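Fold Annotation — chain and its backbone
Encoding — discrete vocabulary of local shapes
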Amino acid sequence: MFFRFLVLLFLLPGTALSAQLTLPAVLSSHMVIQRDLPVHVWGMAAPGEQISVAFRGETRSTKAGPLGRWSVYLKPGAAGGPFQLTVQGNPADAAGSTPATQNLTLDDVLVGDIWVASGQSNMEFQMRNAATAAQDLSHAANPRIRLLIVKQRASDFPQDDVATDGWVASTPESAQDFSAVAWYFAREIEQREHVPVGVIDTSWGGTPVEAWTRMAALGEDAAVAPLFGSWGKMTEGESDALLSQKAEQRQRDEAKAQGKPEPQFGWHPQLVSWGPGQLYNGMIAPFTPLPIRGAIWYQGESNSDLDRAPLYSRIFRDMIEDWRRQWKVGDFPFLYVQISNFKSSPAQDWALLRDQQLKTLALRNTAMAVTIDIGNPDNVHPTDKVDVGLRLARAARALSYGEQVEYSGPLFRQATPEGPVMRVWFDHAKGLTAKGADVTGFEVAAADGKFSPATAKIEGSTVVAASPTVPEPVSVRYGWANSPQCNLFDGEGLPASPFMSGQ
């Protein structure tokens, strides 16, 4: 193992063996530093090299360790900037002479709030493709919003750094390639809180939650063992999958050469991005030394298969809790999007996946943006990203910034049988209303578990549901389909989450 580490050390750029003073890519000009938390600056240098870091009139020094790693913390401070951050290295060679000092300077550094945006394709979805891009991109210039796009990378072991083109201020040009959900979130937070906002877009389309979860965290939870069986089946079929993809590419090339339309094929998962822990290692671990305000997350579609959906809440909670442990800045706000409505295949259970996401709210300092009303039944990538970003921002305003604002639509609390009807109680139910003449989407079931469509009506902050075919109901569900028709909202216009009682 030690020999393997030495080999990797020689191969990695910017290691101690190069004697070059370096910083990780996330520490660069135009970045945002998290306010009100100690400022962490770290990097690589020659073993034993003296390092000095200066920022906002404060200077701290340290010495690089035997492997060249160094790290310093400076005092926390309030939002502001732009500032300059400088790092100076003073190496001493074996002969005792003092080589020239090495200096690194980060310009245009702001202090504000940093949010990590992660997940799969609906988080990766670029601003240029959003329904409201035409009117919003032209007004995207805002030097107080800073963007960092992480290039996709899977890895068998945790990385120290990422590939990126660096931090940039929001402009019409830089924003168009950024996550639409994350950009709208950042715009709202900056406008509401009046502080610089930095967002790290580290996302990869078509990926499962376990790929974003540290392998050790998964291994410590025996309840998620079945996911390794699913992964094993995928790897066993890798050779056939590669042959199939090569055959499809040949057909595309032949069609192009003959001037014919390109043939369309079904989506295939990229095996490299599906391995448990692979994306945590390559795209999350390098950021854990960086103090942050919180995280936003949009993912779940790739876990909706019948064998994966029942495990989602357990894996998702493992991931959130472990991210918090690795970042070491407390139980930071973790705000996520519930998957929307989509006419998926019978091999997928989007209703169950949504319910698994609902259960994850049991974790402290979490919130869920329900999107059952703004999806596209015929497109897994709905283009309304502004409302998604605004709903996440509402949650941040309430949980992270202390605003007295309603941030969630009605959430199921409990259901009680009352003779021939079921009464459903909700949290976040002020102004409970239906968009339409009648409440839709409710079903009830007797002890046999067979659900039948129900008529429903609102009574205060509750809903009563009944069906003439179920005279003694014991359970109720709402919006329980891949693409349901449901219309329950609160007084703020936020939709109720689908649910099933009695689980």
The two ends are 47 Å apart (CA to CA). Residues 1-18 have pLDDT under 50 and may be disordered. The first helix runs from residue 2 to 11.
